[in-house]
From TrEMBL:
Family named by the database record: Belongs to the metallo-dependent hydrolases superfamily. Phosphotriesterase family.
PANTHER family found in the cross-reference section: PHOSPHOTRIESTERASE-RELATED (PTHR10819), PHOSPHOTRIESTERASE-RELATED PROTEIN (PTHR10819:SF3)
Pfam families found in the cross-reference section: PTE (PF02126)
Catalysed transformations (reactions): N-acetyl-L-isoleucine + H2O = L-isoleucine + acetate; N-acetyl-L-methionine + H2O = L-methionine + acetate; N-propanoyltaurine + H2O = propanoate + taurine; N-acetyl-L-valine + H2O = L-valine + acetate
Organism listed in the record: Electrophorus electricus (Electric eel)
Cofactor annotation remark: Binds 2 divalent metal cations per subunit.
Swiss-Prot/TrEMBL cofactor(s): a divalent metal cation
GO MF annotation, one: hydrolase activity
Keywords, in A-Z order: Hydrolase, Metal-binding
Protein name in the entry: N-acetyltaurine hydrolase
Binding site for a divalent metal cation 1: H42, H44, E185, D314
Superkingdom of the organism of origin: Eukaryota
Length: 365
């Protein structure tokens, strides 16, 4: 790049940054925060999740190869990561389009699509889905967990990673001009790897410059969310504008949950619809049911955290689509909201969790 090209790009970046203040950045461009409506803050509309394939238990090999059909659905729901085809949500664009139309009908307005580099983000598909359905879609910048980092990514300095993330937000990602409106989900394992720490620091530095929302996938250990916050804080990240995802499978003890909540991030319960006996990625965990998730939401509200809570389904396998007998992207709006109301959570509190908190998080400073 010549000096004058460099100066032009710098001026374009400053202009792009200024134009985002007070706005939410969707795959179709910036929108006013009031336009978002009810928002699922952690979903995937197209991804490949083969990085997390778990071989089936001995004796179950045939089920793992069987086609996805009615008689196999219960096995699939209990073993979603042991079936290669089930991990290819990227093959279901037509079904996802139908789902998004149903989501709108159910009162949904926006979806934050958390697919980052490593699990096959597909921005042109997201943009087309937004055009076809009228649902606002916010795409994610940055990198998923270490096992998906390329050798090139692992060799990068924090500054290079920061530049890439900033570019994905200000100018577009994956060789397109389609821009990402959040950083994340940034993937971390437990313990957090060196490469993941660099990405976390880069996310914090990018957030400092952009004033944008960040969302984290923590490792599967109760200490993981707190450790991520520590790394982000040391790098200057804004924890009040950061979401900690997957708390349903990560911090099950209420005392530990309150300790974590004091650190000030958004608290996300995003596995609504997932009811499994054995959680393949950490067999020590008893995955809560949806009823237990609602109980935890009521507990956090009682403890004063209604301004910090977010909910979603994190759909990332085929079996969770209605096409395959799953709950789909409208489960929270159709089923969980009535349950919340029946358990003493007020309509005003539901609206905070589904409308106000996502809007505040997603608005650029
Ligand atoms: C796509 C993704 O990372 N989903 C999270 C699955 S987990 O079981 O909660 O880790």
């Amino acid at each position: 790049m010549t000096e004058s090209e460099g100066e032009t790009k710098f001026s374009a970046s400053i202009a792009a940054m200024l134009s985002l203040t007070g706005k939410v950045l969707t795959v179709l461009g910036p929108v006013e925060p009031e336009q978002l409506g009810r928002t699922m803050t952690h979903e995937h509309l197209t991804l490949t999740f083969e990085c997390c394939y778990c071989p089936p238990a001995t004796g179950e090999e045939a089920a793992a190869l069987a086609p996805i059909e009615l008689k196999n659905l219960h096995w699939l729901q209990q073993n979603p990561y042991s079936h290669h085809e089930n991990l290819l949500l990227c093959q279901e664009t037509n079904a996802v389009r139908d789902e998004l139309l149903r989501y709108r009908k159910a009162g949904g307005g926006t979806i934050v699509e958390n697919t980052t580099t490593g699990i096959s983000r597909d921005l042109p598909v997201l943009q087309q889905l937004a055009k076809d359905t009228g649902v606002h879609i916010v795409a994610g910048a940055g990198y998923y967990v270490d096992v998906t980092h390329s050798d090139e990514t692992k060799k990068m300095m924090v500054e290079e990673l920061t530049d890439i993330i900033i570019n994905e937000v200000l100018h577009g990602a994956d060789g397109t001009d389609i821009r990402c409106g959040v950083i994340g989900e940034i993937g971390t394992s437990w313990p957090i790897t060196e490469s993941e720490k660099k990405v976390l620091r880069a996310a914090a530095h990018a957030q400092t410059q952009l004033g944008c929302p960040v969302i984290i996938h923590p490792g599967r250990n109760p200490a993981a969310p707190g450790e991520v916050v520590r790394v982000l804080q040391e790098a200057g990240g804004d924890i009040s504008k950061t979401v900690m995802s997957h708390l349903d499978r990560t911090i099950l003890d209420r005392g530990e949950l309150l300790e974590f909540a004091k650190l000030g991030s958004y608290l996300e319960y995003d596995l609504f619809g997932t009811e499994v006996l054995n959680y393949a990625f950490n067999l020590v965990v008893d995955m809560p049911s949806d009823s237990q998730r609602v109980q935890t939401l009521a507990f956090l509200i009682k403890e004063g955290y209604e301004d910090r809570m977010l909910i979603s389904h994190d759909i990332h396998t085929k079996n969770r689509l209605t096409k395959y007998g799953g709950h789909g992207y409208s489960h929270i709006l159709r089923n969980i909201v009535p349950k919340m109301l029946s358990r003493g959570i007020s309509q005003n509190q539901v609206d905070k969790i589904l409308i106000d908190n996502p809007k505040n998080w997603l608005t650029f400073k």
